[in-house]
Amino acid sequence: MKKLKKTIMLLLGIITAGTLTLNAQNFQGIATYQSARKMGGLSIKGDGMSPEMEKQIQESLKKQMQKEYELKFNLTESTWAEVESLEGAPAAAAGGVVMRISSNSGTKYKNTADNLFLNETEVFSKPFLVESELKNREWQLTSETKKIGNYTAQKAIFSEIVERTVISFNNDDKESTVTSDTINIEAWFTPEIPVSQGPDDFWGLPGLIMEITDGKITYLCTKVILNPEEGVKIKKPSKGKKVTPEELKVIRDEKTKEMMEKYSQGSNGDGKSFTIKIGGN
Q: N or C: less crowded end of the chain, CB within 10 Å?
């Protein structure tokens, strides 16, 4: 009888272990995020532009930057994409200048097992598929925790250097300046969702990243659905010409130069200047 009990317990243990392994292999989910951006990294100045006009443009651009995203994930893969809004993005206009923030809403794909990152993007409306390795970040874990929804999240930090570009137009004169900024990234992840995934190109923590900010833009998880009955289909993006990040930079620089020359040729010589600062804090 004792031998029979031991046999039954052993079989139950094997079945339980097999079930847990199967559930782990099938672990998947969908997380929804809201984004918010500080406007300190973007300034707009123009001759004849009043402070009220500048403020109006800033507010309009800020609304365009408030978006919703969806992260689909399993244990090794994820896709990140903007949730399309039924409302068209408003344009900011002042002094005959119309500004619209490009959504660049292509899909980003991460595969931690293959160390693969795919990014659908556009350069002046032409689609490209950028293929590279995942960006490795040396996260520093802290002991600080907080609640995000029903999950306990732990804080992690990381610092990196990024480029900032300033483009200036003044009649026939044009200037593009590149400087470097140190960005301090703060992430909150939850070990309760055991996937090394997160918003945008962020990953590498022992749990799903629920909130992350780099001082300019913040992504906050507002909803998580784990193991939905209909399943989660993760599809690699394929739209656009395949290029490396280095090849894309060359293409973008060439197209930006063409745009600046075209703008200069179309100037009406009224003596007005226009400056756009992109990136940085």
A: N
